[in-house]
């Protein structure tokens, strides 16, 4: 079942970011409409032509009236007031799950609260009307608010890898060699010689030392990462603005005007007395 999801953004940057995220989430671009204030163009189709006209029968009002129905005046009025000042993204979702996903993306990327923003616009309008009617001038004063935020300024990374290097070590090895000696002898055989006059064998084996290599792993150094924290005092130089009201006393001008008129009248009276000596 098709569902319509609408998000209104204060600026086009947020709207474009939300649009790209909707497309990345798998929503086809031909099911997404985007309109910006004061234009009639959109990514795929247009949903508004003017955001400066506050007539409920303009294209924005007609769009939301068709969406909510002619009887839902509250939603039509609220969405129209906010929509004329913002960037509208309309998503034609094909399922409830897709509509919920689109709504989450629009909220995450800065879609405004329609009811809250519409009430704010109405409040601003009423306040302006009251000021103009009563002749009051609001005194506005800026206050300097200094906060802190954390930014990355650098760092260090430890990366370990295995390297090989050739080593040499000398060792003395002993090798045995069997030597056969034959010495010519010419003497009469003794009884011992006769006792050994039989078959037999004598064996003498050779031995040799060969190198034996072993390895032992030993920890020779440890490398760690740590942080040293220092604090510094910084003075912020900024300017703040305040409404300055100058009150002018108009009673001085009124008194000056009254004095001039009195002098003129007295002069006229004196002229009349000169012309009529009977008075």
From TrEMBL:
Question: Whose protein is this, by species?
Answer: Adhaeribacter pallidiroseus
Stated name of the protein: DUF2382 domain-containing protein
Q: Where is this region: Disordered?
A: 31-56, 251-279
InterPro entries according to UniProt? DUF2382 (IPR019060), Stress_Response_Assoc (IPR052967)
Task: Please note every region of biased composition (Low complexity).
Answer: 35-50, 252-270
Q: Where is the DUF2382 domain?
A: 138-247
């Amino acid at each position: 079942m098709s569902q319509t999801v609408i998000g209104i953004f204060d600026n086009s940057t947020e709207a474009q970011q939300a649009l790209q995220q909707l497309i990345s989430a798998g929503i086809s671009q031909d099911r997404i409409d985007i309109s910006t204030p004061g234009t009639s163009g959109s990514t795929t189709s247009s949903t508004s032509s003017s955001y400066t006209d506050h007539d409920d029968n303009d294209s924005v009002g007609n769009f939301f009236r068709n969406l909510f129905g002619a009887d839902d005046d509250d939603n039509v009025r609220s969405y129209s007031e906010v929509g004329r000042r913002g960037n509208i993204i309309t998503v034609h979702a094909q399922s409830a799950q897709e509509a919920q996903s689109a709504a989450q993306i629009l909220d995450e990327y800065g879609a405004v609260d329609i009811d809250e923003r519409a009430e704010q616009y109405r409040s601003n309008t009423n306040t302006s009307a009251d000021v103009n009617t009563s002749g009051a001038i609001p005194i506005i004063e800026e206050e300097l608010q200094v906060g802190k935020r954390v930014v990355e300024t650098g760092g260090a990374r430890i990366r370990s890898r295995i390297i090989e290097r050739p080593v040499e070590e000398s060792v003395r090895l002993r090798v045995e060699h069997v030597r056969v000696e034959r010495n010519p002898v010419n003497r009469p055989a003794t009884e011992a010689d006769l006792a050994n006059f039989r078959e037999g064998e004598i064996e003498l084996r050779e031995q040799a030392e060969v190198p034996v290599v072993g390895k032992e792993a030993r920890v020779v150094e440890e490398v760690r990462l740590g942080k040293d924290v220092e604090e510094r005092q910084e003075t912020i130089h900024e300017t703040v603005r305040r409404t300055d009201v100058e009150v002018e006393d108009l009673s001085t001008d009124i008194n000056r005007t009254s004095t001039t008129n009195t002098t003129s009248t007295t002069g006229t009276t004196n002229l009349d007395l000169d012309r009529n000596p009977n008075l």
